[in-house]
Specification:
The complex is a heterodimer of chains A (198) and B (276). Chain A is an alpha/beta fold and 198 residues long. Chain A is built from six helices and nine strands. Chain A has a seven-stranded parallel β-sheet, sandwiched between helices. In chain A, helix 3 packs parallel to helix 4 and helix 4 runs parallel beside helix 5. The longest helix of chain A is centred in the middle third of the chain and has 12 residues. Chain A is globular, with a radius of gyration of 15 Å. Chain B has two domains: 65 residues, no CATH class; 191 residues, Rossmann fold, CATH 3.40.50.150. Chain B starts with 7 loop residues before the first helix and ends with a strand. Chain B is globular, with a radius of gyration of 20 Å. Chain B is an alpha/beta fold and 276 residues long. The chains are: A alpha/beta (198), B alpha/beta (276). The interface between A and B is medium-sized, with 19 and 21 residues. The complex binds S-adenosylmethionine (SAM).
């Protein structure tokens, strides 16, 4: 996997809405061992707490767990945002949950996680925005980019719902636009703790 | 929402000023969300920056009430997390019912949906007449609306669905009368409820309870303040009494953890052990 510019991150955010679960499952299946933590923010309808964690754990050997309030973000872990809470990143690289109003009709709000992560991790952050049918995530990517973070958008041509990635590409210049089936290559290279080929 | 930017130092200064001027201490609120709430109030009150907010607060003692209203997150609903209420109904209340008198504290009750949910369950179990419910919050505005017991009618669909999922068997609409787009809950439910202002940061323990609810409040605090408030709760819960937190809140990192046993794996309900 070649990168369009140098990238050196401490956290990877992966977020999406309608049509993104399939992409995440595909990605996890091909995930090698990771060093850099990954935070997944998904809009979902079911509130059935552990179902998603179980589903995701079944696809990878990496540790998958729900992000807990005030938990410190540890290496080599995949965190999943709980349903119906916003997930905020604190200055000391820990999580806070928040049950405030929906933003863009969404709770969790992808923008909120992206923006608070950008304020904390600054340039040492990468984010992937996946398939979805609403506008959430775009403003967050703009913020990440403004702090020098690395922004990836799923190629809308490969998205079940193209609206979200398309809308994001309208407002932010992505560092990479990657087809669904190749996203794992990107994630393996940046989370594996190996030197990055440029 | 476009609002003026401010630095962490400016935010710290605001927090210090608020404590100096009015005794409200927000220094241990979880920063990420507190900062967003401050941005939000700058935007909705069209303030030019954090300095203008500060001087407004300094000059106008009444504005501090509005600040509290807007800085706190008041989102709530009746029978939020129905399976939690089902456990309260099927398991916790029966464990308490042999008591001659049941004292319940809802700390951070917001607009009262949680409190009316409990009053209805107590009534159905024929326990309401020998219960005393204390419902407290830091915000005077939400307390006033809790006291009224009046909620937008359009929410009743969700609330009655939740009520049924939580094991309710009556006709939910028999508990309120609909008027001008609002559902006004029955006065008789309120008879044993006391609404009062209480700040978990600065006010102390005021009674001993058999059942204490504090749901979705601790997530807005940092770990230090969470610990402090949990100790306050510990001092306010009788032996064999219960502590009920929000669905993503925990006592495991606190100093009180070893005195409590989690009721079951799923719900965030703990029972205080007998100390002898
Ligand atoms: C999200 S609401 C929770 C309502 C309800 N318990 C529930 O779970 O649906 C949080 C409430 O905590 C209150 N609160 C925040 N800080 C507080 C403090 N220091 N003391 C008492 N209440 C506080 C807020 O005013 C708000 O009404």
């Amino acid at each position: 996997m070649k990168f369009n510019r140098e990238i050196n991150c401490d956290l990877l955010l992966v977020a999406g809405s309608a049509g993104s679960l399939e992409v995440i499952l595909m990605l996890l299946e091909k995930l090698e061992s990771i060093v850099i933590p990954i935070v997944i923010v998904l809009h979902r309808k079911d509130d059935n707490d552990n179902l998603l964690i179980e589903l995701l754990s079944g696809r990878t050997n990496c540790v998958v767990k729900e992000a807990e309030d005030k938990e410190s973000i540890a290496a080599a872990t995949i965190y999943v945002c709980p349903p119906d809470y916003h997930l905020l990143i604190e200055n000391d690289r820990s999580f806070s949950l928040d049950s405030s109003e929906r933003i863009n009709f969404s709770r969790p709000s992808i923008d909120l996680t992206f923006e608070t992560a950008a304020e904390t991790y600054r340039s040492k952050l990468a984010a992937i925005l996946l398939s979805g049918a609403n506008a959430d995530g775009a403003a967050g990517l703009v913020k990440i980019k403004s702090y020098g973070g690395y922004v990836v958008v799923q190629d809308p041509a490969t998205a079940i719902s193209a609206f979200m990635p398309k809308h994001a590409l309208d407002v932010v210049e992505a560092d990479d636009i990657i087809p669904a089936a190749e996203l794992y290559l990107f994630v393996n290279s940046i989370c594996g703790g190996k030197p990055f080929p440029l | 929402m476009n609002s003026p930017e401010f630095t962490d130092e400016e935010l710290n200064r605001l927090v210090i000023n608020l404590e100096d001027w009015y005794g409200y201490n927000f220094s241990n609120y979880a920063r990420a969300s507190f900062k967003r709430r401050v941005s939000r109030i700058l935007a909705i009150d069209k303030l030019k920056g954090i300095d203008e907010l500060s001087s407004r607060l300094k000059q106008d003692g009444r504005y501090v009430q509005r600040f509290i209203e807007e800085i706190t997150v008041n989102v709530t609903e009746m029978y939020r997390d129905p399976s939690f209420y089902k456990t309260i109904r099927d398991e916790i209340l029966p464990a308490l019912s042999p008591k001659p008198f049941i004292r319940i504290w809802h700390a951070g009750c917001s607009t009262g949906e949680e409190v009316y949910s409990m009053a209805i369950m107590l009534k159905e179990m024929n326990l309401l007449h020998r219960s005393m419910i204390y419902a407290t919050d830091i915000s005077a505005k939400v307390l006033a609306s809790a006291k009224e017991g009046r909620f937008p009618l359009q929410q009743m669909k969700l609330f009655s669905e939740n009520y049924l999922k939580a094991g309710g068997r009556q006709d939910f609409s028999s508990y309120y009368s609909a008027n001008y787009g609002y559902a006004k809950f029955d006065e008789s439910l309120k008879k044993n409820i006391l609404f009062a202002s209480h700040n978990l940061v600065s006010d102390g323990s005021f009674n001993e309870f058999q059942l204490l609810f504090c749901r979705n409040v601790l997530i807005y605090f940092d770990r230090e303040l969470q610990n402090k408030v949990l100790s306050l709760f510990d001092a306010s819960i009788e032996q064999l009494g219960f502590l009920a937190l929000g669905s993503r809140e925990h006592i495991k990192f606190s100093g009180i953890a070893n005195r409590y046993t989690q009721w079951n794996e799923k719900e965030r309900i703990w029972r205080k052990r007998n100390s002898d």
